[in-house]
Amino acid sequence: MTSGFYVDPDSSAARFVRRHPGATEIKTRIADQAGARWFGGTSGDVKQAVTAYTTAADKLDKLPVLVAGNIPGRDCGGRWSGGAESPSAYRTWISQFSDGIGARPAIVVIEPDALARLDCLPRKDRPARIALLKYAANQFATKNPNTWAYLDAGTATTLETKEMARRLRLVDIGKVRGFALNVSNYYTTEESEARGTAIKAALGGAGEFVIDTSRNGNGSNGSWCNPTGRKLGAPTQVGAAPDQAAFTAGTPADLLLWLTTPGTSDGLCGPTPTIPLGTFSPVLATHLITGT
Fold first, then answer.
1. Residue 113 among the catalytic residues
2. Which residues does the annotation say bind substrate (predicted)?
3. Distance from the CA of 92 to the CA of which of 6, 24, 243, 271 falls in 20 to 30 A?
4. In 3D, which of 266, 197, 257 has the Cα closest to residue 230?
5. What is the pLDDT tens value at each position of the chain, 292 positions in all?
6. Is residue 266 annotated as a catalytic residue, yes or no?
7. 258 among the known binding-site residues?
8. Which of 113, 152, 212, 254 is catalytic?
9. CA-CA-CA-CA dihedral for 37, 188, 62, 205, to nearest 10
10. Which of 152, 212, 254, 266 is catalytic?
């Protein structure tokens, strides 16, 4: 058992605050909040990196949240470029990711956008992606007894509900805890709850779901790239899934999670057209704190 969620001491927001100790609002509202750490092709030795991260959380009796993002082709040249060089390289990578967790408690979100953007791949390449996602799900199911893993299922408006449920079945959703919604996006918790409940029903009741609430306080205005007028959402917390009846967060979701560090740029756009993807911006952070 763990006591609360792990706060990443080396998140982009935490690093900014260390350099700017006067940024008290960013420290309190963002850097001191529990969120996810992403692991991908730039994480170096992924087993070593994941081991270090989950061990640090375990020593504090806290639950770490991790995102695995390294599948070949990522999202077909969209905002998240890169990925493993080949299917065999990915299988090695995700296996080592799983090995790094071991028996320590963890939450893992598997490959944001990989299912949602399946259609952008040539038709001949789609079965390989499905096979890799199945392989990833199986790694966590068989090697990590204290990990809740969630396959990404896009946003509240990604595909038709039945089609997303069909894709989740293809990647063996039944082997993991469930699916994730709204990763790095802005749709409201209520919109995501409705979508999650509908997908779960289409799956015959199988699969719990988590929602990224990091930047969804004001919902989506239709833009995904540093839109203004957005706001911080509910902090990371346990939801009210059936086997967690003691918790009353007022949501049917398993968990509400900050899967994105608020203030991290979505790319060269919006009020920060010179801030690259993945770079922390105090301007973006302040917009999210104030909702402007």
1. yes
2. 38, 185, 224
3. 6
4. 266
5. 689 999 999 999 999 999 999 999 999 999 999 999 999 999 999 999 999 999 999 999 999 999 999 999 876 755 556 799 999 999 999 999 999 999 999 999 999 999 999 999 999 999 999 999 999 999 999 999 999 999 999 999 999 999 999 999 999 999 999 999 999 999 999 999 999 999 999 999 989 999 999 999 999 999 999 999 999 999 999 985 444 444 444 579 999 999 999 999 999 999 999 999 999 999 999 999 999 9
6. yes
7. no
8. 113
9. -100
10. 266
